[in-house]
Design goal:
InterPro entries: DHOase, DHOase/Allantoinase_Hydrolase, DHOase_cat, Dihydroorotase_CS, Metal-dep_hydrolase_composite, Metal_Hydrolase. By secondary structure, the protein is an alpha/beta fold. Helix content is about 30%, strand content about 20%. It has helices spanning about 70-80, 95-110, 135-140, 155-170, 190-195, 205-220, 235-245, 255-260, 280-295, 310, 330-335, 345-360; strands spanning about 5-10, 15-20, 25-30, 40, 45-50, 50-55, 80-85, 115, 145, 170-175, 190, 200, 225, 250-255, 300, 375-385, 405-415, 420, 425. The structure holds (4S)-2,6-dioxohexahydropyrimidine-4-carboxylic acid and zinc ion (ZN).
Length: about 425
């Protein structure tokens, strides 16, 4: 079943080739290949390594009204993803080996995408007592990334110890950078739009100051720090300085922070509520430039499904978060490829190669070549489609891109030689 012939695919948008896959591995590339196996005619689509999302909320266990490992895996396969990192802010929190092993096992049972559980840094995400990182790292789930995402590890003593411990375990601490003391009651980016709407502001400095502190702590610990969902142009400058000084820091930006601004808030539609908040046009411009330059390493979705009852409410009561898995590639093409900031090699770098490197995945984000795993996304670069939340595979519908016409579509996803999605149909 794992033998496959992919015909007429253009690796990184270059010349078309055929690829013969046996046992999940590319064994031959060339033109005019034939074999008595299943054929996937790519029809000239761009062939990229399968996408790796460092930041996904799958909501299982405990939030199954919004998403499950199964529905989230289906959304991932439709988006061209072959690996996702499932954030631990579930109920119960993924702060023990039992919970991370459960999530990992559910991912394997569904079998559409490699589901890597992220372990909590602190017990119950409460920021008080460090969770047993070593036990989770050594468990069957082999946790490689830890985060209290949704909340910031605010206590510098705990953050310092977590980084020291992470360094000895060779794992990554992913920080949701938000100084909660500066964001009490915050509902929107602190700026003119928030003032006009009468919403309490979330100042960009609440992100910038935590990132600056954490870079100093990571340097001292010799640890790998990953900064989640960078949203502010000032944070980019902090990251640039830290990287110049050799700090082991990586960073992600979400599709929504590449495309949307707080101007969207004037509708008061809570679909636009997200944490960190949508910021200004200057910030989106800085995010794009930093991603092109590599100061921001990767695009991560922060796919945050919320059932309708959590969004169909007044702004202040609505939960923050947006869907991302099924629209990420198109938003990256729209914001980065169309303006000439990234080519297809660059897309492979930010959606697949760098995320796999940061998380230490040996068999994802690999070159497209003989002897390498057949783990791919196929992209029709000429497609144009209209986003409809109701038509997405995710259980929730909270896409901020509703009704938008976006370029490029993922036409097939292949995980170790197995087709997981073809023309929008998930192959369970
Ligand atoms: O908007 C957000 N939603 N930001 C977070 O940090 C958490 C996430 C969620 O879990 O819904
Ligand atoms: Zn977060």
């Amino acid at each position: 079943m794992k033998d496959l012939l992919i015909k007429n695919a253009r690796p990184y948008g270059e010349d078309a080739v055929d690829l013969l896959v046996r046992d999940g591995v590319v064994v031959e590339t060339g033109s005019g290949l034939s074999a008595d196996v299943d054929v996937l005619d790519a029809d000239g689509a761009v062939l990229l390594p399968g996408f790796v999302d460092l930041h996904t909320h799958l909501r299982e266990p405990g939030g199954e009204e919004s998403e499950t490992v199964e529905t989230g895996s289906r959304a991932a396969a439709r988006g061209g993803y072959t690996a996702v990192f499932a954030m631990p802010n579930t109920d119960p929190v993924a702060d023990t080996a039992v919970v991370v092993e459960h999530v990992r096992r559910r991912g394997e049972e569904v079998g559409l995408v490699d589901v890597h559980p992220v372990g909590a840094v602190t017990v119950g995400l409460e920021g008080v007592k460090m969770a047993e990182l070593g036990t989770m790292a050594r468990s069957r789930a082999r946790v490689r990334m830890f985060s209290d995402d949704g909340r910031c590890v605010h206590d510098p003593v705990i953050m310092r110890r977590a980084l020291e411990y992470a360094s000895s375990l060779d794992v990554v601490i992913a920080q949701h950078a938000e100084d909660h003391r500066l964001t009490v009651g915050a509902q929107a980016h602190e700026g003119v739009v928030a003032s006009r709407l009468g919403l309490a502001g979330w100042p960009a400095t609440a992100e910038e100051t935590i990132v600056a502190r954490d870079c100093a702590l990571a340097r001292e610990a010799g640890a790998a720090l990953h900064v989640c969902h960078v949203s502010s142009l000032r944070t980019v400058e902090v990251l640039r300085a830290a990287k110049d000084q050799g700090v082991r820091v990586s960073a992600e930006v979400t599709p929504h922070h590449l495309l949307l601004t707080d101007a969207a808030l004037t509708s008061y539609d809570p679909v636009n509520k997200v944490n960190p908040p949508l910021r200004t046009g200057e910030d989106t411009k800085a995010m794009r430039a930093a991603l092109a330059e590599g100061v921001i390493d990767v695009v991560a979705t922060d796919h945050a499904p919320h059932a309708q009852q959590y969004k169909d409410t007044e702004w202040a009561a609505a939960k923050p978060g947006m869907l991302g898995l099924e629209t990420a590639l198109s938003v990256v093409v729209h914001t980065m490829v169309e303006p000439g900031l990234l080519d297809w090699r660059g897309v492979a770098r930010v959606l697949s190669e760098r995320p796999a490197e940061i998380a230490g995945l040996p068999d994802q984000g690999r070159p497209i070549a003989e002897g390498e795993p057949a783990t791919f996304a196929l992209v029709d670069p000429d497609a144009v489609w209209t986003v409809r939340g109701a038509a997405l595979a995710s259980k929730a519908t909270n896409t901020p891109f509703e009704g938008m016409r976006l370029p490029a579509a993922v036409t097939a996803t292949v995980l170790r030689g197995r087709i997981t999605m073809r023309n929008g149909e998930v192959q369970a």
